[in-house]
Amino acid sequence: MAPITSLLTAENKKITGTALQGALVDLLDLALVGKQAHWNLTGRFFRTIHLQLDDIVSMARKKADAVAERAVAIGVNPDGRAQTVANDSHVPHLEAGPIEDGKAIAAMTDILESIIRRMRERIEATERPDPVSQDLIIGLTRDLEKHHWMIQAQLR
Amino acid sequence: MAPITSLLTAENKKITGTALQGALVDLLDLALVGKQAHWNLTGRFFRTIHLQLDDIVSMARKKADAVAERAVAIGVNPDGRAQTVANDSHVPHLEAGPIEDGKAIAAMTDILESIIRRMRERIEATERPDPVSQDLIIGLTRDLEKHHWMIQAQLR
Amino acid sequence: MAPITSLLTAENKKITGTALQGALVDLLDLALVGKQAHWNLTGRFFRTIHLQLDDIVSMARKKADAVAERAVAIGVNPDGRAQTVANDSHVPHLEAGPIEDGKAIAAMTDILESIIRRMRERIEATERPDPVSQDLIIGLTRDLEKHHWMIQAQLR
Amino acid sequence: MAPITSLLTAENKKITGTALQGALVDLLDLALVGKQAHWNLTGRFFRTIHLQLDDIVSMARKKADAVAERAVAIGVNPDGRAQTVANDSHVPHLEAGPIEDGKAIAAMTDILESIIRRMRERIEATERPDPVSQDLIIGLTRDLEKHHWMIQAQLR
Amino acid sequence: MAPITSLLTAENKKITGTALQGALVDLLDLALVGKQAHWNLTGRFFRTIHLQLDDIVSMARKKADAVAERAVAIGVNPDGRAQTVANDSHVPHLEAGPIEDGKAIAAMTDILESIIRRMRERIEATERPDPVSQDLIIGLTRDLEKHHWMIQAQLR
Amino acid sequence: MAPITSLLTAENKKITGTALQGALVDLLDLALVGKQAHWNLTGRFFRTIHLQLDDIVSMARKKADAVAERAVAIGVNPDGRAQTVANDSHVPHLEAGPIEDGKAIAAMTDILESIIRRMRERIEATERPDPVSQDLIIGLTRDLEKHHWMIQAQLR
Amino acid sequence: MAPITSLLTAENKKITGTALQGALVDLLDLALVGKQAHWNLTGRFFRTIHLQLDDIVSMARKKADAVAERAVAIGVNPDGRAQTVANDSHVPHLEAGPIEDGKAIAAMTDILESIIRRMRERIEATERPDPVSQDLIIGLTRDLEKHHWMIQAQLR
Amino acid sequence: MAPITSLLTAENKKITGTALQGALVDLLDLALVGKQAHWNLTGRFFRTIHLQLDDIVSMARKKADAVAERAVAIGVNPDGRAQTVANDSHVPHLEAGPIEDGKAIAAMTDILESIIRRMRERIEATERPDPVSQDLIIGLTRDLEKHHWMIQAQLR
Amino acid sequence: MAPITSLLTAENKKITGTALQGALVDLLDLALVGKQAHWNLTGRFFRTIHLQLDDIVSMARKKADAVAERAVAIGVNPDGRAQTVANDSHVPHLEAGPIEDGKAIAAMTDILESIIRRMRERIEATERPDPVSQDLIIGLTRDLEKHHWMIQAQLR
Amino acid sequence: MAPITSLLTAENKKITGTALQGALVDLLDLALVGKQAHWNLTGRFFRTIHLQLDDIVSMARKKADAVAERAVAIGVNPDGRAQTVANDSHVPHLEAGPIEDGKAIAAMTDILESIIRRMRERIEATERPDPVSQDLIIGLTRDLEKHHWMIQAQLR
Amino acid sequence: MAPITSLLTAENKKITGTALQGALVDLLDLALVGKQAHWNLTGRFFRTIHLQLDDIVSMARKKADAVAERAVAIGVNPDGRAQTVANDSHVPHLEAGPIEDGKAIAAMTDILESIIRRMRERIEATERPDPVSQDLIIGLTRDLEKHHWMIQAQLR
Amino acid sequence: MAPITSLLTAENKKITGTALQGALVDLLDLALVGKQAHWNLTGRFFRTIHLQLDDIVSMARKKADAVAERAVAIGVNPDGRAQTVANDSHVPHLEAGPIEDGKAIAAMTDILESIIRRMRERIEATERPDPVSQDLIIGLTRDLEKHHWMIQAQLR
């Protein structure tokens, strides 16, 4: 079965594919960990953070879909299975069980910063190989940085 | 930090909590594996199955959320992290890379049947301990069985 | 051509299939007879009953679809052809030609009561064989009994 | 109870009423048989035809309502009861049980052609007696012929 | 100031313009008289007729607009001023002051029949001169006859 | 048939009823004359004024309805028949036939000013007799003055 | 805990607060008694009055909310608890059990008139102390009087 | 005046009617007390709890309506008048005047727990007498327990 | 590959197919030329004509689709490729580059008149061969003539 | 260039114009300062106040537009340029840079109170000169006082 | 008539204008050829490809509009007339008459690849001359490549 | 109080922050000056420009919000207070009082060109320091240039 063809060179396809697969794992794990905190949250700030986390999850799911479909469009098969996310993710760990609101904010700030750091490297990496994929990553990085600010502002 | 209280006895809470946590893992893995097939699908039937898989993912996400919120409402903390899903899931494995349409239909039929089998056990298990949780599981089993039919009908 | 498989035993599938096929015939005939009265109605109360009958038809069509799709999902082929409805229906007969509003209300009260009586038997019959199908029949019986009250209240 | 009056002569009312009653039976049977195939369909093309059949049923129901209300508006009581549809319909027969996708397309092509043939006769028959009813039949014939093309195109 | 030009001959324009101007006066007066009854209605059937009259007014206004814009499109200036409607209308008279529900139904039945009679003459008159205008009048006559039935059904 | 009762004294009811009936005639005539200009308009500014006139008509119709329903609510039967509007209206006359855009703007400015002048008198007249009706007239006067400005601004 | 401050003098706040608290009790009781009749209604006019009562309840709830929030905005704590409504309400009593349609209309006419009478006193009482609150009461009185007319019209 | 008939035995009707009437009083009082806290709330968490309380009130009103209509549908007249709610309610008391946010959360947790306890008894009581009513109570109990968790989580 | 069958005779199919193919070319060219003027427009009337042209394009595209689908439904393959439109169109030519508003209105008036002239011939040509296709052409001619008036009115 | 004319006397126009221009500056500055706090907010209450401030800004912008359009409608040109707002505003000053949530609430309470104080003076000033403008200012003062309560409640 | 001015240098305007005009021709031809296939399609996969082609046409039309408006915004007049598209297009040719589904997919894959190849050259060409235009072309290239994947996947 | 952190270097943050603050002042002033012209406009072209200015204001407000939130997301506090806008803006001055339509178009063309010139410098300035912010500025520049064309086209 021949793969989907695209106009990228093999080298550019490889670099871009790696960036997109990395972004996919980051975004899928963000969605899972965001829901985990959304459900197990406790504390006086429960309701507002519960809603805020759902905004983040919703954004992460939408962008994960765009990233995966971009990968296959350039001829690279994305891998978003649970095992792959569990093994490859660099998203900071979240403990099981109830999560106090203050801890949830601190953890989410770290998680978003960690993902943003990798996304900024992917923006650089894809600039020449594929400006079309780069543009997608630039756009989702703006969303991630907006949420990073709105979570972090609660720690100031 | 005291857990969320509910009116279930410790025994009933344990049985119900186990059923809900099992359902959560099944539904989250269904959503991940459904998206995996949605992205990597190939073949003449690509478009219609691509859309059908998104219907399944959308249902799985919505029901996973309801199940996890039901668990915390009875005082049991749900666990939906990538590592937990990867370790605990009994959902049949899906290979990485491109998936031909015929194989995707066959795989999805097996996956749904496997989940439905466990859900029917959970309906029985929760009947006496918590009819409120049982009612939720009955409802989502109807959705799963409807999708099972609509996928399986393509194999007849 | 192998039938759709489900996890019900042959015995349970037969009992549940019979209940669902019976419900389907009742609901399709309710939709046809409801429209018949909706069109041929006369009398000072024309407009309000004309609209009320459309609410009933709309509910009957939606539930008939759910019931038929439930039947096929458990591996039983539903039969909703005109001949089958005409032969198998136990819904009380409605004369052709113009229908006075008072007679329409009385006829509709009888029709709904007749269907509800059979639905309540189906709730009992399916409780053990298939609680998932039972839950569907319980839900539509509530709708039928609500309409039965709102029609019947006009006779008090 | 005096019938609804209209401005048509007795002769024109009779011709037009016959055409509308015939159209009503055709459309109601189309809706029933369309749902029958929608539920019992099997085969690789299941999903796309399942949806297509619902488009046809939805159109048939809407037009049946318009036709029946047109009949009563000219003083002719329409008859859409199950027995009448079963007895008077000339729509080709559909077997009970599972229907393979290829057979469903072939059957639906025949059914639509059969109905269209009668509708075209009704367009001619009503031209002078009642151009208002004729205009309604012309409009629904266009819808029927559009669906006939879209079903039939799958056989080419 | 040169008038709007159209492709109709002077003769056809004159016949069609007369039909459209007549239809306009009928529809504007129907809207005014419908509102008059809508406001001044009394009796046990107040609410349902109050709403029904608004449906008629809404239809009359929409069709009046279509008819007037059709007139100007063929180069005939429509006249819908109060004085013109008051002088030229053949719509049966409605007394000032409170209107009992039974009388409102009877009056509205007469009014609609009177308008329909003239519309049917306009359908004949415009058939050859301008089938485009005729098609518009056929369509609105269907609406008028539907409302005529639904009002009149309350007298049976 | 006893009239609708309200809590206003006979004197206050009479004053308020007169104000509301006057407002009704003004608003109904505004709607008719607004449509007349909307249809017969010519000139380079056709499209923008054509749309602006429809905004005015739409406001006039809505407020006429509110005013008439207010009248009947205080026990005064409103009269909005064509003959009454034709006889009682003080709205400046509009010639039949095509209307150049500049003339339409000038005429509409005069018409709105004429109506506003009477509405302001009604605000004063109803202040003590019925502040509830006054509030309605104040509100619609604001709408009239807004449209007066937007029409008049085209003359500056 | 200091109360919410506002710019009204103590005297004006007291007068306005009394008016708003009285209006709140009236509107909450209207909503409860409206639903009571909505549920227990019988008779040939069941459906239309059932719907009409829901319109009244919906208006009463919306306005009760506005009135209570207005009270707290001027520094007066509203009291809308069941005991307070039961003790302080002057709304005429409604018997338990089934309510015939004619009796429901008569009772609702009395109830609305009783509330309107008190609202008109509150309009006067608040004119100088707080025109902002007065404007709110004027607006809701118009709604109450509209419903009073539409209920009462059925008795004429 | 004969009561609405249903297919329940007298004994089952009585048991079910008692459960539904009890649920109605609980839900109506929840709606009133929820609004009371919504209006009189103070403290840094004002806005988020203000909104959360409105979600609860909205759910309570919708379910109260469903419960009352279910009662009348089985032939039992519901009683939702202020006096009945004030006398029969077992919902914990709420003080008049301003309510600090912490106290509001604690009070609401108690109120919801108290209602849930009674609802769970009603689920048991209605299981055999009327599974249709039971299904309604199961559904609303899930909503109540969800809100109980989301309120209570703020105390952890 | 057998063509789509229809019930028209070969002769009627040919006449109707020619009319529909001609209409298709006219409408596609109208959409292209309308957009061309929409983009390149200049002058004080820019904004209102820019919007008006988009209304025309939107209508033309929708009707072109209906016409092409009608052609294939009667068994005639429509041809809407650029080369065909360029070669077969009789729509008056539009110069490249900026278009002054006055010129755009004059050109559009000519273009619409030219298309309407051909459409009226097609209405006559299809009357006997296929009243269903004729009805479609009558409907779109009304739209074309309405836009012709609204464009032309700016030249008066 | 002659100004827009209105029916107010020169004296009344001057008084009303002054009130409206003052209100405009207040509302525009409220919108700017509300956004400033919305962006620069920090602290644990970030999210809920961030959203609350946007509600205030949205209301301020809508009312500023209504006030400015009211001014021009009575013949007074409003001035909402940055320089004018900066020079004429009496809204309390807000420091640049990050704003802690507690400070933001305190500042917003002062700002709203300051604006409300001036609005209440404008209500008095415009009562006789122009009750139409007064009604607009009364309405927006109610909105301002509602937001003042909801902000201030967080300080209690 | 002076052209629209922009801030681009003559050189940059020329390069960017050439890229945009080329993109316009590609997108307009894609829309025409996509509709051509949408109408003339045959084969078992008719319905799903028929719908997919409409998604492509809809995207192509929207982007063509954006590209043309971008051209005029930088001072270059776009040319989208039929003759220009027919002469200048490099989009692969499509035969007239019926198109089998397999051929349609193959043809569309070639067409999209051909357009994407030119778009990628335009991305490079416009990077320095006008990053604003480049960003538009990058965005639409992502859409084209997504559709290219979804069409091509059916060939794997 | 520590500022919001981001991953930009101090140097890059400074450059980007300066660009964003400049863009914010430009966009806020554009919104204020756009409304100023929207309100004070006069002349025959009043209505169409009045609406066009609102489109520009709406775009300016939305983009100002995005720019300010981007600034704070990278750790730079935006300043959008009236005094800052008044002092720092380079947007060309607009006279107070009535504005003739021709002058408004000329002024708006200058204002938009002036802002676009600065935005293009910011696109260059931010390319290396922060491609994420640059992408935002590129996007809003496209909107500004589109409006610049549509305003300027009226001068040609």
Automatic annotation (TrEMBL), chains A, B, C, D, E, F, G, H, I, J, K, L:
SUPFAM superfamilies: Ferritin-like (SSF47240). Belongs to the Dps family. It comes from the Bacteria. GO terms for molecular function: ferric iron binding. Pfam families: Ferritin. It comes from Acrocarpospora corrugata. The lineage of its organism: Bacteria, Bacillati, Actinomycetota, Actinomycetes, Streptosporangiales. This is DNA starvation/stationary phase protection protein. Residues 19-156 form the Ferritin/DPS domain.
